[in-house]
């Protein structure tokens, strides 16, 4: 498995640069007839929308790709999940009236989410790996075991509904990577659990496993409350040759109904799956326990929503807020200048969490001074806050956070390419979250070098 800290850092740096022109924001001109939605105080109980899953096979001609996309967008769907499109441009994949999210790259950009901007505004977006097994045969051009899912959390234009959409593509069972189906589903299920804290979740993509096949992971999917729309209609339609391997999953099926589901023949070797669904958000479902998954989150600094602008910093605050008594939170940052972060660290300390901060800020902020006054500056204690000059040899990003226990996660490491300051909300920021012990220890080693 390729899970080295240096690789994570290189990826985070490259993505932070590459995403500057790709984080498409709400407010694009809508295409076609305008959609009238209810006012916030008259929200409808049931909301109807269309979801499309389309594997647009790589290697097709531009004319074939355009023809397939025309079929995908024929009904002006609310959401589209695509596969195998890393080499196609955003402009081709998201026509007028649509926005697109993916992290650019050969592997990270293969499975974007596209949505209608007249109906939905983006609140948060990110990318996570679902398998990270390198290696390929001499006849292969890509490492088939390296797979990423892209996700967005969206709020309806009337403010009444929040929903998350995930686009994924599970690796096929092949040499030299073996069978990655079960660990990939576990990653997707963990992501669905995390996103479910904000509302209903849709996951659409190529599972590379036949619906009636012996290895179809029904029990595992059910454990994450993921139900395929094929179950909900009682009808299985072939999507690849004679097999059904493309799926739209809903989390908490009691909230959803499928009013129509069809497939569309494409030039691609997959048929597109088109589902018309209704959502009843007033059906009560159990809230998920807070959790974290490996991947990264990007904020939207030009959004009118404070939630969207603070998507990264809010997850850092969540990690601190869920640390139990006896846990240790270590923070290294170029500047701590956010009052909500200060309150989270202060509250953590008061409930028995060990809080350790090193700031490289030359002129201490109000928040840094307050934390030093509360914790003291002696590193002989279990909690402290100190100021140190920036050390290039420490190898740390602008902000690094390490929490050895939070939610149901052990050893959460967070890298952010911006200081832990309120102005993070005004700039594009990317937070990289990792749960691997090796990554955590590498971050902590950098933290130790920084405070010497």
So what's the CATH class of the largest domain?
Alpha Beta
Tally of strands = 21
What name does the CATH topology of the largest domain carry?
Deoxyribonuclease I, Chain A
Determine the oligomeric state from the structure. Answer: single chain
Main β-sheet, spatial strand arrangement: 9-10-8-7-6-5-13-21-19-18-14-16-17
Tell me the helix content. 10-25%
Mean pLDDT: 89
User: Tell me, what's the shape?
Assistant: globular
Domain Endonuclease/exonuclease/phosphatase: 68-270
Protein name: Endonuclease/exonuclease/phosphatase domain-containing protein
Blueprint of the fold:
Blueprint: H1 5-18, E1 47-55, H2 62-72, E2 79-83, H3 90-93, E3 98-101, E4 113-116, E5 120-132, E6 146-156, E7 162-169, H4 181-195, E8 201-206, H5 218-223, E9 226-228, H6 229-233, E10 246-251, E11 256-264, E12 272-279, E13 295-298, H7 306-309, H8 311-321, E14 328-333, E15 336-337, H9 339-350, E16 354-359, H10 366-375, E17 384-387, E18 399-406, E19 409-416, E20 420-421, E21 430-434, H11 437-451
Parallel strand pairs: 1-2, 7-8, 14-16, 15-20, 16-17
Antiparallel strand pairs: 1-12, 2-4, 3-4, 5-6, 5-13, 6-7, 8-10, 9-10, 11-12, 13-21, 14-18, 18-19, 19-21
Helix pairs in contact: 8-9, 9-10
